[in-house]
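Forwarding these from the shared drive since the link keeps breaking.
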Amino acid sequence: MGFKTLLGRAWLGLREDTFLQILLLALVGLSLLTRTPLNAYSGLVDWPTIAALTGLLALTKGVESSGALYRVGHWLVGYMTSERAAALCLVTAAAVLSTVLTNDVALFVIVPLTLGICRITPLPTTRLVVFEALAVNAGSALTPIGNPQNLFLWQLSGQSFGQFVWHMLPLVAILMLLLLAVTAAAFSGRALQTSDPESEHPLDRRLLGVSLLLYPVFLVLTDMHYAPWALLAVLLCLCLVRWRVLAQIDWGLLLVFVLMFIDLRLLVGLDLVQHALNGWGLAQPLHLFWAGIASSQIVSNVPAAIALAEFSKDWKVLAYAVNIGGFGLMVGSLANLIALRMAPDKRAWLSFHVWSIPFLVVGAGIGWVLLFAI
């Protein structure tokens, strides 16, 4: 496949991306409202985050393109007796990984593996990806390092790692039990059958070795706040090994994140939004709880946590609110956007909301009971 063909596919994907087009229209509207100069947009973007996301996308694509995930999928299918067993296994793995690798990284591991398994045996791919998105939202809420909002609130709270986990444990335990029960009901018990011989997918050992070697190096350098330099090294190495991998990266997802940073920060800066926040009575814990959930549906849970922390230091209520707020609309959590972008079905967002909105309602009820009724 030539470079022009790959570039053409990337451009076609951008043209067909409805959410990207909505963000562009929102940018135009917010620009007119705020009269923000174009040269100020760059300062609204968290470039280290974009660099980290780009590196993870590149490395994940390297592992996926090597054929390794297909081999692992074949091995796992041998131990999965049914569609329900496969779903429970993948959902549980996504939740567990998110507690230590963050929700985004967990998706970069689980979703490509899921897509590989679905190429081997017929499974409801979109539904699996949706449930994995729900799983990382629930699982990552447990630990201070599970997602960005928890990391921020952990630093704000001054609590130990164990104290933070202990506070979040009741909510996460109930959400996970509920999620596993719904997963068992949503997937059938039919037996799995392999539909694709393993020999048809050769393993690119060189690409796999380079990608796996770069993974820990990239994560360590990113943790040390050298994400841009780490990204440069990753792109250079992959370009030398298999340049086509870079052309297959979801560049549209990166553009979506850039536009979200700009749009959300322009939105939060509006006088109308600031006035609304001031009028919500956030000093009252119950008001803070509902505000955290509601604002997450508008600006995503990480910006919501940062914005609301300016009005209240009640980290316990805020942690419950913004983690529950990751459910509901797809903008509630950036992990939702990552999962839906990686799903093969362009209408996956419809299926996502069918399951995620009820989880938001139930999760809000559970959080209210745990915080205010017990």
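-- next protein --
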Amino acid sequence: MTRRISWTLLVLTSVLLVLAVVPLAVLMTGRERVTYRDSQRSATRVIAAAAEEHLSDHKPALTMRRELAAAARAGDCAAVYDASAHLVASTPCTAAQGEEAVELVRDVLAGHEPEPPESEGRLLAAEPAGEVRRPAGAAVLARSAAPLDARIAAIWGWSAVIGVAGLAASMVLSVRLARWVGRPLSVLDASARRLGEGALDERADVGSGPPEVRRLAGTFNTMAARTEALVHGHRAVIADVSHQLRTPLAALRLRLDVLATGAEDGIAAELAAAQEEIARLSRLVDGLLAVARAEQATPRPTAVRTEAVVAERVAAWSPVAEERGVRLAAVSGGPSPVVASGAGHLEQILDNLIANAVEAVDEDGSVTLDVRSEGDFARVRVRDDGPGMTAEAKEVAFRRFGNREARGTGLGLAIVHRLVTVNGGTARLEDTPGGGLTVELRLPLWRESGSGQGGATKILTGSEEDVSEFPSADGTA
């Protein structure tokens, strides 16, 4: 914006200066030429008047020669011609005696007013001696055009200086104006970006810039304060619900354990079934809380090396997979991409996907994780050779309890989808060639210049951050 405003004002000022300075310089140049010509013609008339006394009245040529001498001292060349265009007297220089001067004299003697020509850097002027219709002769004055050219050059030079000074002043003022307008907007943009990245206490500066920008900053601060209060309120509600639900569930489970001790076989079986329902309810509560926390997530992106996180999660889930007789492996398609993701989010995403895949495949099945870069994104695929999903199930799989065929709570993929999208990525489901389900994630690559985190360069590998903020929803979709 600063550059656009500056260039716009600079172009506008340039146009105004051209429209003002150039016509003024042209006008002054024309006036200077007229003044110079009038001065030359006045000097020529003086010589012509002295020549008339000699040519018409036959007086001594003393006055005429005195005027010619004065013209010579002034640096001019002058000559006097009689009615037959014959040279009568002249200054030592011969610039007023050439063919052009003679032609000019003949035109004057014939009663014409020719346009004075320029010869060899000198301007010629001719005036009749006596009456215009019947002149007794003519006087010719040749004056150097150098003074006139110098004055004209000075006029254009000063005009150029004025134009450049005006452009410089305009540039300074336009840059200051553009910064006055653009800098608060840039600060407001940065504040909005940081607020979107999770800094809920971020506020914009309302003390600089135009009134409209200050009002916009004030409105932004009001919105940010309300958003912060709303998010904190939701987090408080989740914390209260978590405490209020988990505590009675734990107490109920302990009481069932006590009742099951020493109970008869029939009653013990009923109590065991009740304990299973209590455990299922606990998992459901944990899953709902995890989804709610994921939906409220406003992550601050950090640089996460995907290959290290994938290797760590594969190692963590390998014992579970071996126990179920499932082959769990990771493959790499080149250099490890570094993605921009909230701390712990990629670990939570992979935990839910691996848990779902391991639970879905039969014994001797396989689960494969594939990571590679594609343009500005990193593609992460989790493939299994299990039963897969129907087209109807895939359409609703990312919704809460959307998949009625799920063996667990049906919240795992909802958490995955929320965490992927909140980090600027996408998630989709497709069939695995040969049978099974493939979950494909596209996560944005880390760009330090556009991260908005003050140039942070710490790269997380998964083991450096606590990932317990979003607990797994029992490991199944």
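The two ends are 48 Å apart (CA to CA). The CA atoms of residues 448 and 454 lie 9 Å apart.

- D.
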